[in-house]
Amino acid sequence: MSKTDPIADYLTRIRNATRAKHRKVDIPASNVKKEITRILQEEHYIKNHIIIEDNKQSIIRIYLKYKDDDESVIAGLDRVSRPGYRRYVGKGLIPRVYNNLGLAIMTTSQGVMTGQEARRRGVGGEVICYVW
């Protein structure tokens, strides 16, 4: 369990669950993880998600999405900005993932959003991860 980088732990849990062909995965919740999950659902990388409230820390239950041949819709997840090396980009240098076939998830002054949305709004920020 990762204490220093909860976002990397989040991505690793999803990556491991898709490789093991699980239908769902439970992840400890935080506001940033909830926003990343919302984006993944809006961009059709996951089927659905629910927030399970409890007394200590909420849990995000993510229902993974697969193609007809049981291949995961998520081909890859890559952590970009880490606690030891933060990667910030300006509005003109927002990366394109696999020639716009994937997406970059960023945290900006206007919230967590995709790289495409940040480019459209004209804001830069910290690149959290790539999904394809």
Account of the protein in words:
- The protein is an alpha+beta fold and 132 residues long.
- It has two domains: 6-64, Ribosomal Protein S8, Chain: A, domain 1 (2-Layer Sandwich), CATH 3.30.1370.30; 77-131, Dna Ligase, domain 1 (2-Layer Sandwich), CATH 3.30.1490.
- Helix content is 25%, strand content 30%.
- The chain contains three helices and eight strands, in the order αβαββββββαβ.
- It has helices at residues 6-19, 31-42, 115-121, and strands at 24-28, 46-52, 59-64, 77-79, 88-89, 103-108, 111-114, 125-131.
- The longest helix has 14 residues, at 6-19.
- The two termini are 24 Å apart.
Overview features:
single chain, 132 residues, alpha+beta, Ribosomal Protein S8, Chain: A, domain 1, Dna Ligase, domain 1, 2 domains, 5-stranded antiparallel β-sheet, 3 helices, 8 strands, globular
In short:
With 132 residues, this protein is of the alpha+beta class.
Question: How many individual helices?
Answer: 3
Average pLDDT across residues? 95
CATH fold assignment of the largest domain: Ribosomal Protein S8, Chain: A, domain 1
What overall form do the CA principal axes indicate? globular
CATH class of the largest domain: Alpha Beta
Instruction: Name the poorly predicted regions.
Output: none
Order of helices and strands: HEHEEEEEEHE
What class, by secondary structure content?
alpha+beta
Give me the CATH architecture of the largest domain, please: 2-Layer Sandwich
- Give a short account of the largest sheet: 5 strands, antiparallel
Strand residues, percent: 25-35%
